[in-house]
Amino acid sequence: MSITPCRPKWKSAMSDRERFNRQMHYQPVDRCFNMEFGYWAENFSEWPLFVENNVKNNPEADVFFAFDPIHVVWNNSWLSPLFEKRVVEERGGMQLVMNEEGLLAEIPKDAHGTIPHYIKASITTPEDWQRCKEERMRVDDPARIMDVAAIQRRHPGKRDYPLGIWCGSMIGKIRDLLTFEGVCYAYYDYPEMLEDMVETCCQLVEHNLDQVLGKIDFDYACGWEDICFNHGPILSVDFFEKVIAPRYKRIGARLKAAGIDIWYTDCDGDVRPLLPVFLDSGINCLFPYEVNSCVHPGRLLDEYGKDLRIMGGVDKMKLKEGPQAIKSYLESLVPYVERGGYIPFCDHRCPPDVSPENYLYYLDLKEQMFGMH
To answer: CATH no. for residue 291?
Structure first.
């Protein structure tokens, strides 16, 4: 079933692609680029406007709300093959599950949105890593060959939407594989193993970029780290400077040679200690920029000027509070939207305890303030 938009697309004098590129380069635009990061899974069963209109996932929600389209060319730069997901044991209302990354995780049977409780990682020693590397992290794995012709057909050069290239993860996915505690232990116990894991991730990304850069015209690059929490990064800034940054710079050199100068990484938590490392390495945009773990996005945009871009940064807590809080917060973003280099949207997936009424008010107000008048 096709999704019928519940509202018209914002009026436009530019293509979405031109608008995105101009906004990210601090150039005048017809209006703000209109996008959102998405919703918790529960929203699709709890929000009446989704249920009644048969909207079941984030891509359908983007169509439903008539957002400006933005796309990414994904690639296989992680475990290949993944582990087989299976239920190991059931305990009351909980399941013990082996997930796709080989971790034993305790999750609720009803699958409501919660962070799993990880019990055991598949990699705890260099021997474990060597076996995993040989079986699941081979650069020459045929499954890593990209169908460039198919991508070119899907995303022609004269498209009217921005297109990104996926640049994977240098340490965030390793954290997933080892667990929070495991990556901290590895930092001290097995530093050579940890650096080899980072190097392997970098080589996989380079292999994928080499297949498509110069053959497809990308507007931006993107990656995922999630290596910070509300007190800063899990690992030291020194580790990022010595181990992670050199790999970012290798990737950044490839992007720059292909004319790509917008590169965001998805990193939650307080990213401020890592921001100088990101910027020096070529990552110049934060996404989706969680406010409550950090500061108002304007603080960083003021501090770093036009070296930095931010996508996101609308405090989800304000969306819960209602119209007055929403209006006050969006008003605080006006000078940054007007300056450029900033695209406002909810600072992660919108949770179900934001009422649909408040959310629609937010979308309406965003259009009034940042759309064409």
So the answer is: 3.20.20.210
CA pair distance 132, 82, nearest whole angstrom: 10
Question: What residues form DSSP beta bridges with 342?
Answer: 310
C-beta neighbour count of 350 within 10 angstroms: 24
Within 222-322, residue ranges assigned H as helices are 237-239, 245-257, 275-281, 297-304, 316-321
Q: Is residue 157 part of a domain?
A: yes
* pTM assigned to the model: 0.95
Burial level of 169, CB count in 10 A (0-12/13-18/19+)? buried
Give me the residues paired with residue 165 across strands: 73, 221
Is residue 39 within 8 A of residue 350, CB to CB? The reply is yes
Q: Identify residue 255 by its one-letter amino acid code.
A: L
Note whether residue 1 is domain-resident.
Answer: no
**Residue 155 near residue 163, CB atoms below 8 Å:** yes
10 Å Cβ neighbour count for 265? 25
Taking the C-alpha atoms of residue 61 and residue 218, their distance in angstroms, rounded to an integer, is 24
For 44-61, the pLDDT digits (tens) are 999 999 999 999 999 999
Amino acid in position 213 = L
